[in-house]
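Re: [ENG-882] Designed sequences occasionally contain unexpected residues at chain ends

Forwarding the minimal case from QA. Structure tokens:
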């Protein structure tokens, strides 16, 4: 009897200790801040915490791969899950700064839409960089990047993200290159020169933005009349704050963001559990309801309410005249193009 009681007591103590350890555990999840990250809390963090007893410590960054690389190279990794754009994921995976994922701990790879199942990352949203404008300032709505470049018809400042990516594509489309031919042209030295020459035309009219919250702030304040912007940020500003903003879907650029785990994370298993929970259909749909980005599993796409689906970059209508971000191009040429871009800005 005593032996049984002692064993039971030991088991009880072990279970209690295990629960205490689990509840004391935490992972650091890093994303891009703003409404997008705020919406991750009810959609992903809370279901994960409920399922595991572990806590999510949220942090934000601007997508700089160098910060992750520095942590990995100095064996001082403090982040467990990082939201990354597709070219950075591809480059980081090739350089060995992200863990290879075990999909048996997440879900079958064929459960995801095309392109969302990567060796080093799991797609979490489909998003677009679109043109946005202030409807109080512009009554004759622009419809192309050529309009964005037309400072005579649409006088005033316009905002672009501070970087080569997206802007070189927009510049070529503004110069008359069809969306489907953009990367063919940009893949030549002459095409790159052409894009920078086109950017020269409006350089004095550009106000640069770095964080996703800035474009709509600039537009509402009247600092700029048009801006490139993340689709969901603008849609949310219209719906929640009744801002006088509108989107132009044709010639937008769409891509995926992914969850990745920095190489050397001390919580790899827990990090993969977070990705699994964040990839559940009900949680992806909930996130799309909070932030109008497209979900990344086949089940979640089918589960979207029709009225919501039409407002997302993943809708057939919005993709019709859009350009898919060429990840291979930016993996191969991104570093040199960003260096050239930085030199161009500094001139």
């Amino acid at each position: 009897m005593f032996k049984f009681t002692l064993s039971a007591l030991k088991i009880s103590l072990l279970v209690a200790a295990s629960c205490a350890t689990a509840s004391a555990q935490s992972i650091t999840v890093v994303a891009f801040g703003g409404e997008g990250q705020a919406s991750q809390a009810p959609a992903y963090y809370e279901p994960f915490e409920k399922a595991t007893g572990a806590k999510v410590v949220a942090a934000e960054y601007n997508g700089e791969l160098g910060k992750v690389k520095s942590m990995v190279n100095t064996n001082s990794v403090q982040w467990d899950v990082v939201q990354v754009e597709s070219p950075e994921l591809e480059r980081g995976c090739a350089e060995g700064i992200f863990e290879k994922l075990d999909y048996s701990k997440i879900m079958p790879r064929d459960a995801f839409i095309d392109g969302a199942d990567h060796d080093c990352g799991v797609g979490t949203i489909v998003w677009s960089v679109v043109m946005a404008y202030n409807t109080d300032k512009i009554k004759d709505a622009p419809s192309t990047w050529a309009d964005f470049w037309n400072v005579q018809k649409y006088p005033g400042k316009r905002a672009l993200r501070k970087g080569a990516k997206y802007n070189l594509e927009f510049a070529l489309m503004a110069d008359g290159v069809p969306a489907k031919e953009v990367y063919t042209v940009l893949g030549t030295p002459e095409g790159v020169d052409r894009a920078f020459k086109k950017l020269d035309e409006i350089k004095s009219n550009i106000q640069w933005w770095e964080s996703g919250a800035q474009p709509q702030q600039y537009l509402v304040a009247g600092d700029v009349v048009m801006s490139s912007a993340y689709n969901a940020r603008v849609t949310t500003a219209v719906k929640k704050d009744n801002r006088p903003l509108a989107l132009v879907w044709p010639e937008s650029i769409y891509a995926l963001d992914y969850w990745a785990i920095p190489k050397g994370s001390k919580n790899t298993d827990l990090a993969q559990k977070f990705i699994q929970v964040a990839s559940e259909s009900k949680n992806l749909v909930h996130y799309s309801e909070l932030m109008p980005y497209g979900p990344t599993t086949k089940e979640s796409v089918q589960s979207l309410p029709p009225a919501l689906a039409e407002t997302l970059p993943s809708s057939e209508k919005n993709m019709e005249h859009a350009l898919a971000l060429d990840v291979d191009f930016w993996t191969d040429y991104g570093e040199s193009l960003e260096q050239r871009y930085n030199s161009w800005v500094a001139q």
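QA comment: On inspection the terminal residues look reasonable. DSSP finds 16 helices and ten strands in the chain. Proposing we downgrade this to a documentation issue.
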